[in-house]
Amino acid sequence: MKAVQKARISPDSAFAVQHLHAPHFDHNWHFHAEYQLFVVLEGTGTRFIGDHVEPFAPGDLVFTGPDLPHLWRSDPEYFEGDRGRQTEGVVIYFHEDLLGAALLSKNESLRIRQLLTRSTRGIQFTGATQQEASRRMQELPQLRDFDRVLALLGLLDLLSHSDHYRLLAGAGYTNALKAEDTERMNSVHAYVMQHFREKISLDAAAALANMTPTSFSRYFRTHANKTFSDFLSEIRIGYACKLLLEKEMDVAQIAYESGFQTLSNFNRQFRALTSYSPLAYRRAYSESGYPAQGMPRTKG
Fold first, then answer.
1. Which of 184, 179, 275, 295 is nearest to 235 (CA)?
2. pLDDT tens for each residue of 104-121
3. H-state helical runs in the chain
4. Contact criterion met (CB below 8 Å) for 254 and 240
5. Domains defined for the chain, CATH in brackets
6. pLDDT band at 247 (very low <50, low <70, confident <90, very high)
7. Nearest Cα to Cα of residue 60 among 19, 15, 29, 90
């Protein structure tokens, strides 16, 4: 997959909105020139925003700025032909010039300017903001003409006044990807997401990128802002969090199903990434589902 630069918005339209229904979400790591608002209505998996990695579930609502790499990778079971599993979401694309430079520079647009600036790291909205924004996003595809524009402006105003959000990508993250990098990183992402429950070696990942292990380690750290080992651990711990909340399995089973070879290593890495032991995590979130501020907090 190459870096997506094609126009997502018709030249005759102010912005684009799509109600998505598919067996799985787009599995390609990519970035584009448009701002993007995306809410997950159905489906689970792992979300990648810049250098940030964590699981997602229905209700996940994220605003990403231009050229910020992102991916909502559905869980492996969504690629296994189970027709009972589907994904659904609403996505909105727009350019900064939707508001016009003259209006955007005025005092009345201060909060919108601040919102757009924050989106360069990716913003996850939660709580009452997430609920109201999700409702409005689901209504938007049915609106026509200038009602659509007014609805989008109202949605951005709602988000700009909210305190129920958190930034995702690290403060120092910058997108160093080029077109050839997205294709290379996609092959690595796809391999890890297909095989993270198995033993994965650095040599195997490096071979996918057609690089030596040493070169690949440097390359991956530069573009992901973390080591390949840390990346793999985040994927496995995220899947373990999902199993802890959704399955009646003991911790040892979950450790094995998530790709860990020893229980002690699983417990150590789980606590390092979530600040909980596996059982404490299950107790804390078994009734409310995923944590109120999104999924388990990971490094990045």
1. 295
2. 888 888 999 999 999 999
3. 101-104, 110-118, 127-139, 146-160, 179-195, 202-208, 213-224, 228-246, 251-257, 263-274, 278-285
4. yes
5. 15-167 (2.60.120.280), 179-285 (1.10.10.60)
6. confident
7. 90
